[in-house]
TrEMBL record:
GO CC annotations, alphabetized: plasma membrane
Keywords: ATP-binding, Membrane, Nucleotide-binding, Transmembrane, Transmembrane helix
Domain ABC transporter stretches: 343-578
Keyword Secreted listed: no
Main localization category: membrane
Classification of source organism: Bacteria, Bacillati, Actinomycetota, Actinomycetes, Streptosporangiales
Protein's name according to its UniProt entry: ATP-binding cassette subfamily C protein CydC
Residue ranges annotated for the ABC transmembrane type-1 domain, each copy included: 28-309
SUPFAM superfamilies in alphabetical order: ABC transporter transmembrane region, P-loop containing nucleoside triphosphate hydrolases
Length: 585
């Protein structure tokens, strides 16, 4: 599912501009600096024309001195103003971009992004589609505004000198600065949209191929995956080529209009000079000023052609920003008390959609402070759903989940998530050092605390034996560590977060059976003293937990200690007998 959310009807371009509202004053300042730069450029050519034409009449040098100084001043001011415009608009755009990135990440933290967006597509949304905001502000919005300010002033000056020349310039600027860009935009809209989509497709194909490389090679499907990447790349190139052709059309049309306007002004002006209704000096000024004025609108066709792509990127960006949070939670709330807490679940019911069957159907579960409880069940029993409710990725449809006597839905999501930490099935290990991976849970904490957590997770010996100790780089996804070490590292990280409830969600699912038993034993030993929930589908280590809940089809089938459940007829005793039988066989 790439983008299930459609935003409100408002145009994404306007919504992107609205994102920059807090930086509005800076943008206005940037536009004024830009107008000063382009105005200086136009005035420089106008004054130069006056100077050359006047000098041809051999006046006393004093008659030219002001114009000479003005050309130097305009030459300098053009550079300074351009520099200031770039500085101010980029500063404002980067600040806006930083705001937008924070909003996007905040939104993703409130949803289940990985389930909603394909990972490569999400990368594309986070990088290039978010960057499009900056592109719009610096290249899409500022040049037209500058063109309006400077173009208007130039038309006024030319009209004052020679009315037909002013009118011709106005017509030429409207054609080159409005009609051509709008035509380019109309043509560029679809390719622009297709370019953003094609970029997302390429990114998805690449990420899938990179991450899935071992499986693709094992199944001999690498050629097909590479062909998919090549197809996406070809589509992107084709669309980009079409966009480039549009740009060429815009630039060519603008150059044609410039030439025609200047020639028409020149021809009319020559006739006016012959009729003595215009001085030759004014003619030189009007013609060269008109020529310079077209420089102002020269970037606009490119801007308009790019707007289609920016609009499409904006739509994809708002696809993320408009995604409703997956849970309802207050922004602020009381802090949860420190230390191991009691977890009390009553009549919990959860399903994934109005017509869907219940994934959890009236579950009651208790963990006393400092005790370890296991939830056991076959695939589809609802174990992961229970974990996602505890991690606050999903709201209960009905029933209550209380932590330390307080409903977890009454707390801000961040507070609730800090209170329930754990080891997921496949914990993400960052391509960084052991120290940085651990500090993620408690930024800035000292090495003593890190070693303490490593000792509890039974990883300290291995790390001590590594030449670089805590500085050891673990590689992308922790590939330089064994599977068991990755789980222990994730446990040490969870312990550092000092959660009120520790959730071990199938922590050994990806390990081989021998390692599995050792890691389960170590995890349970390390979890001693914590209120711990072990979610599992295999029986390893369950004799060490205080209580076991057997879950089937979303409901609690059996509940009791290992000894109680072995003593009574039912699913658990059968499963243990089956496992022992298989082991013996
Ligand atoms: N994202 C989802 N959308 C719709 N239904 C879902 C979704 N996730 C789980 N389910 C359904 O909810 C029920 C419980 O699934 P859940 O993943 O919680 O079980 P589980 O015990 O964790 O299984 P497993 O051990 O295979 O992960 C199943 O019927 C499953 O099909």
């Amino acid at each position: 599912m790439s983008s299930p959310i459609t935003g409100p009807a408002r145009d994404p371009l306007w919504r992107m501009i609205a994102l920059a509202r807090p930086r509005g004053v800076r943008f206005v300042l940037g536009v004024l600096w830009g107008a000063a730069a382009t105005g200086s450029g136009v005035a420089l050519l106008g004054v130069s024309a006056w100077l050359i034409a006047k000098a041809a009449e051999h006046p006393p040098i004093t008659a030219l001195s002001i114009a000479v100084v003005a050309t130097r001043a305009l030459g300098v001011s053009r550079g300074v103003a351009r520099y200031m415009e770039r500085l101010v608009t980029h500063d404002a755009a980067f600040r806006t971009l930083a705001d937008v990135r924070v909003r996007v990440y905040e939104r993703l933290a409130r949803t289940e992004p990985v389930r909603r967006f394909r990972s490569g597509d999400l990368v594309s949304r986070l990088v290039s589609d978010t960057d499009a905001t900056q592109d719009l502000l610096v290249r899409g919005l500022t040049p037209p505004l500058i063109a309006v300010v400077t173009g208007g002033a130039t038309i006024a000056v030319c009209t004052a000198l020679y009315v037909p020349g002013g009118l011709l310039l106005a017509a030429g600027l409207v054609l080159a600065g409005l009609v051509v860009p709008f035509a380019a935009a109309a043509l560029g809209r679809r390719p622009g949209e297709r370019q953003a989509a094609a970029r997302g497709e390429l990114s998805t194909a690449l990420v899938d191929t990179l991450y899935g490389a071992p499986d693709l090679i094992a199944y001999g499907a690498m050629d097909r995956a590479v062909a998919r990447v090549q197809q996406a790349d070809t589509e992107l190139t084709r669309v980009a080529r079409r966009d480039a052709a549009l740009l060429g059309f815009g630039a060519g049309a603008a150059a044609l209009i410039t030439g025609l306007t200047v020639w028409a002004t020149l021809l009319l002006g020559v006739a006016a000079v012959a009729d003595d209704t215009l001085t030759s000096i004014s003619l030189a000024v009007v013609v060269l000023t008109a020529l310079a004025a077209f420089e102002i609108v020269a970037p606009l066709p490119a801007v308009a052609a790019r707007l289609g792509a920016i609009r499409a990127s904006g739509a994809r960006l708002f696809g993320v920003l408009d995604t409703p949070p997956s849970v309802d939670a207050p922004e602020t709330g009381p802090a949860l008390p420190d230390g191991p807490a009691a977890l009390r679940i009553r009549d919990l019911r959860v399903r994934y959609g109005p017509g869907e069957p219940w994934a959890l159907d009236g579950v009651d579960l208790d963990i006393a402070p400092g005790r370890t409880v296991a939830v056991l069940g076959p695939s589809g029993a609802g174990k992961s759903t229970l974990a996602s409710v505890l991690f606050r990725f999903r709201d209960p449809d009905s029933g209550t989940v209380e932590l330390g006597g307080a409903d977890i839905t009454a707390h801000p999501v961040d507070a609730a998530r800090a209170a329930v930490a754990g080891v997921p099935q496949d914990p993400h290990i960052f391509a960084s050092s052991l120290r940085e991976n651990l500090r993620l849970a408690r930024p800035g904490c000292g090495d003593d605390a890190l070693w303490d957590a490593l000792r509890r997770a039974r990883l300290a010996h291995e790390v001590e034996a590594m030449p670089d100790g805590l500085e050891t780089e673990v590689g992308s996804h922790g590939t330089r560590l064994s599977g068991g070490m990755r789980q222990r590292l994730a446990l040490a990280r969870a312990l550092l977060a000092a959660p009120r409830v520790l959730v071990l969600d199938e922590p050994t699912a990806h390990l081989d059976p021998d390692t599995r038993d050792a890691v389960t034993a170590d995890l349970l030993a390390a979890a001693e003293g914590y209120s711990t929930l072990l979610i599992t589908h295999d029986l390893a280590g369950l004799d060490r937990v205080d209580e076991i809940y057997v879950l089937a089809e979303g409901a609690v089938l059996q509940h009791g200690s290992h000894a109680d459940l072995l003593a009574s007829d039912g699913w658990y005793r059968d499963a243990v007998a089956l496992t022992n039988g298989a082991g013996a066989g």
